[in-house]
Amino acid sequence: MANDKKLVESITSMEDDFAQWYTDVVKKAELIEYSSVKGCMILRPSGYAIWEMIQQELDRRFKETGVENVYMPMFIPESLLNKEKDHVEGFAPEVAWVTHGGNDPLAERMCIRPTSETLFCDFYSNIIQSYRDLPKLYNQWCSVCRWEKTTRPFLRTTEFLWQEGHTAHATAEDAEERTIMMLNLYADFCENVLAIPMIKGRKTDKEKFAGAEATYTIEALMHDGKALQSGTSHNFGDGFAKAFDIQYTDKDNKLKYVHQTSWGMTTRLIGAIIMVHGDNSGLVLPPMVAPTQVMIIPIMQKKEGVLEKADELQKRLEKVCRVKTDTTDKTPGFKFAEQEMRGIPLRVEIGPKDIEANQAVIVRRDTREKYTVSLDELESRISELLVTIQKDMLDRAAKHRDAHTTTALNYDEFKEAVATKPGFIKAMWCGDVACENKIKEDTTATSRCMPFSQEHLSDNCVCCGKPAKTMVYWGKAY
Amino acid sequence: MANDKKLVESITSMEDDFAQWYTDVVKKAELIEYSSVKGCMILRPSGYAIWEMIQQELDRRFKETGVENVYMPMFIPESLLNKEKDHVEGFAPEVAWVTHGGNDPLAERMCIRPTSETLFCDFYSNIIQSYRDLPKLYNQWCSVCRWEKTTRPFLRTTEFLWQEGHTAHATAEDAEERTIMMLNLYADFCENVLAIPMIKGRKTDKEKFAGAEATYTIEALMHDGKALQSGTSHNFGDGFAKAFDIQYTDKDNKLKYVHQTSWGMTTRLIGAIIMVHGDNSGLVLPPMVAPTQVMIIPIMQKKEGVLEKADELQKRLEKVCRVKTDTTDKTPGFKFAEQEMRGIPLRVEIGPKDIEANQAVIVRRDTREKYTVSLDELESRISELLVTIQKDMLDRAAKHRDAHTTTALNYDEFKEAVATKPGFIKAMWCGDVACENKIKEDTTATSRCMPFSQEHLSDNCVCCGKPAKTMVYWGKAY
């Protein structure tokens, strides 16, 4: 059958061509389909279901910290976008402009939100009057649009899905506390749900968000040694408040400007999952974010009793995990390949001989280890294995990251590391943007962050040799 | 306190000015805020939380019928929109056009989706090859944009949130079955979750969706006697499949066109909840869709033990309902007014005397009935009352609808009914669009639907007197 063959054909191996391997996985695991719209992708059920898992868990965690969801318009009138100078300079070159409604030209053109700081500021200036109205801890789930020249599924697309949190606080301290709280929430989510370890730190001024006082970031290392910025949290100070006149009457009866933050994560996280955990058989999903955690595959399913037994196991396992049974008329071999391509963490094989022996075969997706398990212990073994896989995946990713992190004490070491050792490079920096620019020009590596966990590697900037101020993680990035 | 006064100020009464009452409720219950973007509203936390309740429950029901979620681009290239003739004629006059990306004009302008049939068809033509690929049962949650001249919160806005289901089937029968299944799902949801009774029926050709073979609708009656189309389900036959060349190889090895459906519900439902259940104290939410079902309001909360007791009740009630406690420093009277404005179904008052008597006072939002209840029975009484309120609200809405449904046997009766009895009018129709047009011109009433529950009122069309084909529900509509 033509349809069956398509999936079992092997994909490009990641050692041969990582970019092509990535494209093969997103297509063959049916995460996305390309659309007729330039730079936009279609999220297919398998891809969107991962996003739903991410949403559900993040949303729960946001709400635990007092965050409430809202929905803002997708349009920003040009005059509103122009209100904060740095912000408009950063975003105007990459927005889509709506110029006509129906057959009529608009009096003022509007862009499709590339991010919604300006809309939230306009909103806050209307609803915040008193210290009693603070803090405002709002978030929205939506899509945004940035006109990109080169696009890649999940990593960089013209339109993408994300959440954007926007908060307003009475004091600078409250805003800073929230900025760091959300960064920590992001890092914890990535490590404990997506099994991706993160470097937490602050962006250099060159790399910070347009209009922010400080941008914090979590950075992950992909299997090919490139870095991926996975979430950012910005402290705006009172810059936007002054541009949009967001003032409140404090307890002392004085008018004061609010202090604001914003923070976001996107469908890019799905790209991170693929590139951190995937292998040459396809996707490998951490159990906590896998829409289906266990696939039961009946063997010789036409034999009497096999489908009935599979159904019985399905019903039993539904109580402990997200489980499906593949009862299609495909061959077991094809079903295995499909389950592996889609990254489902465990498969349970059950055939006539297994039934006779009151057992099933469980196979781990991540390590391919096989276990023959008594049916009496099925639920407990599956539950244990899901926990083990989750933990092992994080451990492997951390080991890979550490094995691909190099320390460079001088510029020769730095250049050699970039050329020969894909991964993070830890090196000291003087704080001068000139060195950052030179490093980027010479090597294409960029500063990923100034990590919270600082190490004193040497006294001198790796680039200019002048006194160093801080340790920086550098790397080539997506 | 200036802030406190704002809310307790009485709103316009619905008898004086229903439209102003509606606007007052959406603003003072803090469901929405107007934005700087023409025709677009901001969904505030109290408004968005209702949408989240609706989403959660509908999404669960969709998935039970095998529907999977996807996400499609927000843009439609002009050439794609133009592919189905009726469809483009219906929507082109009211779409927003994107003409520039960053600083560059686009080679082809794109509209922002007013609905996504064309995108789904383009997608389906790529992924459907064989009968094995059918059915496709996809849905997406997103926003769409229709350039409206007159807008009104929830009822008609330039951008609004909705879900749009799009399915593809092997046969015409399968498509019709799905179209009706979703209509029934919608009606059941509205009746059993939103407590709004629905008339189910088919739209006349004049009122059907641009490009559909048949449009089915659920119609509700608002408190002011106007109708609100609350959800639609369309059977496209193979019209779109032919325009977009969506063919599959059937078991008999022949190429056949698929048959398609689409169906949608929107944030308009929140408008329906307001206009069916609301009263002169504000919003009244049916318990099943209320983000907060019970508000505990401590009385004399500075007295020793009151806040502790309120907290104890909060913890107990969390096990049986969605409950909050208002511990702000506002007066109890203000808190009552606020809880009523926001439509929270029950409030629990607990003060020193109540504590001493081991009791609490429960007040229903819908009827204002008060119950003094032993604290030992609090959970069971609250649970019972929430069920009772839900049921009573549906019953009252059905009674109101029935009391505002008039039968007209001839055109004089029809015109008098439109002029003097706000509500639905049941009347026979010959099937000729000329009568539909005349009725609209003479009375502004439109055909709402040809109900599935037909009655034989007379032999003649209420307008022209010629032989009647069908009974129609008519009414003025939002």
What does this structure look like?
The structure is a homodimer of 478-residue chains. Chain A has 478 residues and is α+β, with helices and mostly antiparallel strands. Chain A has helices at 2-8, 18-28, 45-64, 78-81, 85-91, 117-127, 172-192, 239-244, 268-277, 306-317, 332-341, 352-356, 378-403, 411-420, 433-443, and strands at 32-34, 41-43, 68-69, 75-77, 96-101, 104-112, 136-145, 159-169, 199-202, 214-221, 227-237, 247-249, 255-257, 259-266, 294-298, 323-325, 346-350, 359-364, 370-374, 405-407, 424-429, 446-451, 470-475. Chain A folds into three domains: 12-277, BirA Bifunctional Protein, domain 2 (2-Layer Sandwich); 294-385, Rossmann fold; 405-475, 2-Layer Sandwich (Translation Initiation Factor IF3). In chain A, helix 14 (411-420) links the parallel strand 20 and strand 21. In chain A, helix 1 packs across helix 11 (332-341) and helix 3 crosses helix 7. Chain A is globular. The two termini of chain A are 38 Å apart. Residues 1-5 of chain A have low confidence and may be disordered. At the A-B interface, strand 2, helix 3, strand 3, strand 4 and strand 5 of A face strand 2, helix 3, strand 3, strand 4 and strand 5 of B. Strand 5 (96-101) of chain A pairs antiparallel with strand 5 (96-101) of chain B.
Question: What's the helix and strand layout?
Answer:
Two copies of one chain form a homodimer.
Chain A: H1 2-8, H2 18-28, E1 32-34, E2 41-43, H3 45-64, E3 68-69, E4 75-77, H4 78-81, H5 85-91, E5 96-101, E6 104-112, H6 117-127, E7 136-145, E8 159-169, H7 172-192, E9 199-202, E10 214-221, E11 227-237, H8 239-244, E12 247-249, E13 255-257, E14 259-266, H9 268-277, E15 294-298, H10 306-317, E16 323-325, H11 332-341, E17 346-350, H12 352-356, E18 359-364, E19 370-374, H13 378-403, E20 405-407, H14 411-420, E21 424-429, H15 433-443, E22 446-451, E23 470-475
Parallel strand pairs in A: 3-7, 15-16, 15-17, 20-21
Antiparallel strand pairs in A: 1-2, 4-6, 5-6, 7-8, 8-14, 9-10, 9-22, 10-11, 11-14, 12-13, 17-18, 18-19, 21-23, 22-23
